[in-house]
Amino acid sequence: MERADRICRHPLWRDSMEQIRVLERDRVFCRHDTAHCLDVARLAYIEALEQGLTVPKELIYAAALLHDVGRHLQYREGIPHDQGSAGIAETVLADCGFTPEERAEVRAAILGHRDRETGERQDLAGLLYRADKASRNCLFCEAEAACNWSPEKKNMILKG
Questions:
Q1: Which range, of 2-16, 26-40, 49-63, averages the lowest pLDDT?
Q2: Each residue of 50-97: pLDDT tens digit?
Q3: Sequence-separated (6 or more) residues with CB below 8 Å from residue 138
Q4: How far from each other are the two terminal CA atoms of the chain, in whole angstroms?
Q5: How many C-beta neighbours within 10 Å does residue 13 have?
Q6: d(CA 159, CA 105)
Q7: Taking the model in full, what pTM does it have?
Q8: Is 36 helix (H, G, I), strand (E, B) or coil?
Q9: What's the average model confidence in pLDDT over 25-31?
């Protein structure tokens, strides 16, 4: 997981995550912080193991660490965060030693992590989509009643 560790030390990733932290400081709803990224990575990896999928652990972690990294661009410039995140991911992944094929797979997963159809896939993109949604603890959230997620999307039961 050396390259995933490099992502966490990359100045562009760190700066982006700090900007998101500052911009979401007063946010009552789910935040897009490091804890969220790691929750997504771990849930995706667990599912990959349980389903016998051959998606490399390091790609799962790379996609999870980078999938929301462009949130600050959405807040400040109106750029959809999946697009902003994919752009940042290209630079970070290249600097951290990922191959062009790996970068393309991670970017595609990031760009698809908001599309419902992606959730049906049994690849990195599908894992990222499902883990991102499953990472939200709606059942225990103090802001759940005010959240604009539909009741069908909210995680109101424990899933094993």
A1: 26-40
A2: 999 999 999 999 999 999 999 999 999 999 999 999 999 999 999 999
A3: 144, 147, 149, 154, 155, 156
A4: 26
A5: 23
A6: 28
A7: 0.92
A8: helix
A9: 86
- The residue type at 88: I
Q: What is the pLDDT of residue 46?
A: 97
Q: Yes or no: say if 43 and 134 are a contact pair by the CB < 8 Å rule.
A: yes
pLDDT at 160 over 70: no
Q: Which residues contact 62 (CB under 8 A, 6 or more apart)?
A: 3, 4, 7, 89, 93, 96, 98, 102, 106
pLDDT at 154: 75
Of the candidates 124, 141, 135, the one whose C-alpha atom is nearest the C-alpha of residue 159 is 135
How far is it, in rounded angstroms, from Cα 19 to Cα 80?
16
Q: Domains along the chain?
A: 2-135 (1.10.3210.10)
**Within 10 A of 26 (CB to CB), how many other CB atoms are there?**
6
Distance CA(31)–CA(21), nearest Å, equals 8
Of residues 99, 96, 71, the one with CA closest to residue 85: 71
Q: How far apart are CA 1 and CA 7, in angstroms?
A: 10
Closest residue by Cα to residue 85 from 6, 24, 19: 19
Q: Torsions phi, psi of 80, nearest 5?
A: -50, 135
